[in-house]
């Protein structure tokens, strides 16, 4: 089959690789119809994850058709939250791999599954404990082949696969795999009270879904921050007031817009590759270059300082290692709460499907580019460099240019 393989920093190639095979009784093989490139993939593309190996298949936002099932599913039917699944069904695949029966899965904490990361020992060395396995996301989280490919093996298929009802296009449901639940969980993590003001840094795909989710969850105002004009424009169409951080001092602006109080909650939807302004930006770039810090927390610092006293800091943005100069004094003395994590995708699937079927939101709004899988290298390039007004790229295996 054809698959998008990581070959080093800033280098992906579409290669012919062996088809995936059933390894465990609870596996399924999915023939992929749509798959997307995520901001998280950029961290790998940009070379910030030391546990990538040349040839690793990328991708964790994919959906398609079940073409093969493991021997655990004897009658060809598997059961998922009361729904029978069978060969030929159209499904979306959460990016987090979860067993469905461990301490964490039983507590609805799917991205913390204890049984799905075969390289848990490696994560434990760095983090003390391991998160769940993730598709296409380095050997630290299992080394699983990803879904920017024609086929993928899905472990614990009875827990992960989510059947899509007829009548919905791929583009309306593809983002259930990651960015829609990620934006939604990040908004939920803001503990929004009716009428609250939420400030969101980052108007990438995750920020876009966070904006709309915060409003769905009762925020009175969302203030979105970025510097890319078309992303700010899309944020504004989604109901946010917008700030361009290159044109305005964000902390001062937020104070002014909230009568001095500060936003009730703040969200870092940017993560470890935040762009920093002035001396501070230079400081983080320099420290990262000599590996004295792994991640650049420019946004996190700003968000903590901007948040109102007693407020909540929600962090969907990905961090992998260590950050410097955290304003812990502000965090402690203002009595803030922080909530973060890889998304518990399984938790939100039915809720988000209901929202789409009720017509509350059409997730396809975020797509700016649809390309055949073969053009993935071009897709990575324009998404990284924000060329050609690129906001979200969907790749289509089996389609030609
Ligand atoms: P993206 O790279 O498309 O978007 C990031 C945006 O942040 C860009 O528009 C960029 O201009 C903006 N930005 C950079 N520096 C900024 C600053 N100082 N102030 C304000 N904006 C700034 O990525 P995305 O797909 O939207 O993902 C965003 C983050 O969410 C990434 O870190 C990604 O890894 C993470 N993510 C987390 C989860 C999860 O489960 N927690 C899932 C998906 C993605
Ligand atoms: Zn993603």
Integer count of domains: 2
Task: Look at the structure and give the mean pLDDT.
Answer: 95
Q: Would you tell me which CATH topology of the largest domain applies?
A: Quinone Oxidoreductase, Chain A, domain 1
The CATH architecture of the largest domain would be Alpha-Beta Complex
- Please report the distance between the alpha carbons of the first and last residues: 18 Å
Low-confidence stretches: none
Beta-strand proportion: 15-25%
CATH class of the largest domain: Alpha Beta
Considering DSSP H and I runs of 4 or more, what fraction of the residues is helical?
A: 25-40%
Report the C-alpha radius of gyration, rounded: 20 Å
Q: Main sheet?
A: 7 strands, mixed
Listed once per kind, the bound small molecules are: nicotinamide-adenine-dinucleotide, zinc ion
CATH superfamily of the largest domain: Medium-chain alcohol dehydrogenases, catalytic domain
Mind explaining what this structure looks like?
The protein is α/β, with parallel strands linked by helices and 401 residues long. It has 2 domains: 2-178 and 343-396, Medium-chain alcohol dehydrogenases, catalytic domain (Quinone Oxidoreductase, Chain A, domain 1), CATH 3.90.180; 180-340, Rossmann fold, CATH 3.40.50. 28% of the residues lie in helices and 21% in strands. The protein has 13 helices and 19 strands. The chain has helices at 39-45, 120-127, 157-160, 170-173, 179-188, 205-216, 229-237, 250-257, 278-289, 298-306, 328-333, 345-357, 376-385, and strands at 2-8, 11-16, 28-36, 61-69, 78-80, 83-85, 90-93, 96-97, 133-134, 151-154, 162-163, 197-201, 221-226, 241-244, 265-268, 312-315, 337-340, 369-372, 393-396. The strands form 5 sheets. Strands 3, 4, 7, 10, 11, 18 and 19 form a 7-stranded mixed β-sheet that branches. Strands 14-13-12-15-16-17 form a 6-stranded parallel β-sheet, with helices on both faces. The longest helix has 13 residues, at 345-357. The model has no long low-confidence stretch (mean pLDDT 95). It binds nicotinamide-adenine-dinucleotide and zinc ion. Residues 38, 40, 60-61, 95, 178-179 line the site of zinc ion.
